Amino acid sequence: MRFDGLPVGERLQDQALADWLGRYISEAEEGVEQLRREGPRTKVPRHARKKAVAKELSVLRRWLLEFPKLVAHAPDQVTRKHLEQAAEHLLTSRRDEHGAPATLKPVTARRWLLTLSGVYNTAARDWGFTIENPVRGMPLPQATTAEEHEREGRLVTGDELERILAQIPEASRLTLACIRFLRWSGARRSEALRLDWRDVNLTSEIPTVTFKGTKDARQRYRERTIPLHPKAVEALREALGDQPQPSEGRAFPLATDTPTQAWIRGTKRAGLSVRLHDLRHTRTTEVTAVLHPLEAKVITGHADLRMLDRYYHGEATALGRKLQEADAKAAAAAKSSKGGVVIKPDTEGMSAEQKLKASLALQLLREAGVELTDGLDPNMA
Fold it and tell me: Which positions ≥6 away from 64 have C-beta within 8 Å?
C-alpha cells in the first residue's frame, strides 16, 4: 500500500529508464507478432506499428548495453547533460567489444537520441506518466559532410545478379524465386513475403499482383496493384514448381530474413558490395525511365516524388540514348512540318490509269502551294 494510493511499481520514482526501455521493447515485439498473426486491423500499441520498429528496438538494446549507469537512473533524473555526454561518447570515444574505435556518424547518433525520445513520448502519451522529455529542445548532432547524405543504393546489373545467384546453390528454389521476383517486381522484401496467392492474377492479358498491408510515412496501411514484368511472372511460376496455383496461401513461405541472408552469402562469395534492397532501386529506375513519375510511384508504392527520387539512378549512357532518340524524333517532325504534307503512296499494283490519276492529283496540290514528297514520277503519265 502507498499513501498516495498508487499501486506499487506505477509511481515515477519507482521506475528506472532501463525498465521503460524494456517495456517499450516488449510491447513492440508482442505487437509486431500480433500484427503478423491477426492482420493490420488488430489493436496494438502504436509504437508496434512504426515502419522502422526493428531498427528502433536494435538501438534501444544498444542503449541498455552501452550505458548501464545512465539507464539505471529514474527517468525524471536523466538530464540533458547526461544525454550530451552520451552523445559525445558515441561521436568521439565509442569502441566495440574488441576495443577497436567504433564511433558513430552524427546522423546515426542523432537517430539514437530520437529513438530514446520516442520512449519518453510513449510514456507520457500511452503509459500515463507526467514527465518532461529531456531530448526535446536539446541540440542534436548534425551531419557535417556531404558524404553522410550520400544517396544509398545502386543499380544491379543482370550479370551481377546471375553471379550472386550462382554462388548460393544451397539456397532453396523458393529463396531463389523470391530474389528474382524482388528484382523484376521492385517490391519491398516484406511485401513479397506477405504476398498471398489470392492476390496474384497470372491469367489476365497483363498479369498483376496486389500488395496489401504496406505502411506509408503516416503509418497508414495501403494496398496497390501493379502489372508484372514477364520475368516476375516466371519467378512466381518457379515458386509454384510443378503445382497449379493455389487459391490462397503465401507465395513465398519463407522466414523474414531468409532471402537477405542468402543474398549476403552470395555477394560475399561473388566479391560484390550490393544490398538486396538495391534490386528495388534497379526496378524503380527502369520504371521511372519509361513512365511519368506520378505513374511510376503508383507502381513502386512510394509516398511522394521526393522518395521516388532517392530510388532513381539515372545513368549517363541511358540518358544520352534517350536524348538521341528524342532529337531524332524532333528532327523528323520538323522536316515533316516544314515540307508540308508527306505522301509516299505505294505504286505497286497500280494500273496505268490509276498512276495517271495519282500524278494529276499531286500536280494539282503542288499548284495550290502544297510542297509534297512522294514516291511517284511526276512525268510517269
Answer: 18, 21, 22, 71
Helix (H) or strand (E) holding 215: strand 208-215
Give every CB contact of residue 29 below 8 A, 6+ residues apart in sequence: 48, 57
Signed CA dihedral, 179, 181, 184, 188: sign only: negative
HSE-CB for 95 with a 13 A CA cutoff: 6
List, in order, residues 6 or more apart from 380 with CB less than 8 Å away: 355, 356, 359
Give the residue extent of every domain in the chain. Answer: 12-149, 158-318, 335-381
301: nearest Cα among 180, 209, 174:
209
Largest CA distance in the chain: 118
Collapsing DSSP to helix, strand or coil, 134 comes out as: coil
The stretches of 217-315 forming alpha helices (DSSP H) are: 230-240, 258-270, 278-290, 293-300, 305-311
The pTM of the whole model exceeds 0.85: no
* pLDDT tens per residue across all 381 residues of the chain: 445 555 556 677 778 999 999 999 999 999 999 988 888 788 999 998 887 888 999 999 999 999 999 999 999 999 999 999 999 999 999 988 888 888 998 989 999 999 999 999 999 999 988 899 999 989 998 866 544 444 578 889 999 999 999 999 999 999 999 999 999 999 999 899 999 999 999 999 999 999 987 755 555 567 889 999 999 999 999 999 989 999 999 999 998 889 999 999 999 999 999 999 999 999 999 998 888 888 888 888 887 787 788 788 877 777 777 778 878 888 777 776 655 555 555 556 677 777 777 777 777 777 776 666 545 454 544
CATH topology of domain 12-149: DNA polymerase; domain 1 (1.10.150)
Residue 284: closest CA among 161, 149, 152, 187? 187
Per DSSP, 38 falls in state: H
Assigned C-alpha cell, 153:
543504393
Homologous superfamily, domain 158-318? Intergrase catalytic core (1.10.443.10)
